[in-house]
Amino acid sequence: MRKAIYPGSFDPITNGHLDIIKRSAGLFDEIVIAVLNNSQKNPLFSVNERVNMIKELTKDIPNVSVDSFQGLTVDYAKEIGATAMIRGLRAVSDFEYELQIAQTNKVEFPEIETIFLTADLNYSYLSSSVVREFASYGGDISKFVPEEIIPTIREKFHSER
Ligand code: ADP
To answer: pTM of whole model > 0.85?
Structure first.
C-alpha cells in the first residue's frame, strides 16, 4: 500500500488544490488530505469548516480521505504510516521554501519522500489568499473554487460584516 499525505492549510481549498488531489490519487493507493490545525496562523475558516469543504468535494474519489492534524507534518505522516508527502509547485517563489521544508523533513524522517507536482497552467496563479481577498470584496470566485463551496465562503464574509 502506497499511502501519501497532502498537507496544507486549505483556507479554503481551491481548484488548484483539487487538481493536485485528483492527479495524486492516480499515483498512490491512498491519499490523506491533512488539514493543518495551527492556532498561530489565525485561519479564516475553522478546521471543521475546511475539512468539511474538502470532504464534500472529494467524496467521489474512493482512495482520498480527509483528516486534520496538529504539530509537525512528519510526525503526523509517521503516525498514519504515510511514506510520501505531496506538495504543489506554482512558481519559483514556491520552490525555495518547499525545498527547505522537504530537506528538513528528510532529516527528521528519512523514510519519507516529498513528491512535487507542478501546478496546472490554469491554476498556477491561484492561492487561498486570492480567494479570500476576492470573496472579501464580494468578487466573482467561480473560476477559483468549485461552485459547491461558494455559499460557504460567501456566508463567512456575510456573517463577519
Ligand atoms: P500551506 O499553508 O502549507 O502552504 P496551502 O493550503 O496554501 O498550504 O497549500 C498546500 C499545498 O498546495 C502547497 O504545496 C501549495 O504549494 C500547493 N498549492 C496551493 N495552491 C496551488 C495551486 N493553485 N496549484 C497547485 N498547487 C497549489
So the answer is: yes
Nearest residue by C-alpha to atom 20 in ligand 1:
127
What does the DSSP assignment read for 79-142?
Answer: HHT--EEEEEE-SHHHHHHHHHHHHHHHHH-TT-EEEEEEPPGGGTT--HHHHHHHHHTT---T
> One of 24, 50, 128, 132 is an active-site residue; which one?
128
Question: Domains, the chain, ranges and CATH?
Answer: 3-124 (3.40.50.620)
Distance CA 65, CA 142 (A): 25
Give residue-wise pLDDT tens across range 80-101.
999 999 999 998 889 999 999 9
Say if ligand 1 is within 6 A of residue 43 CB: no
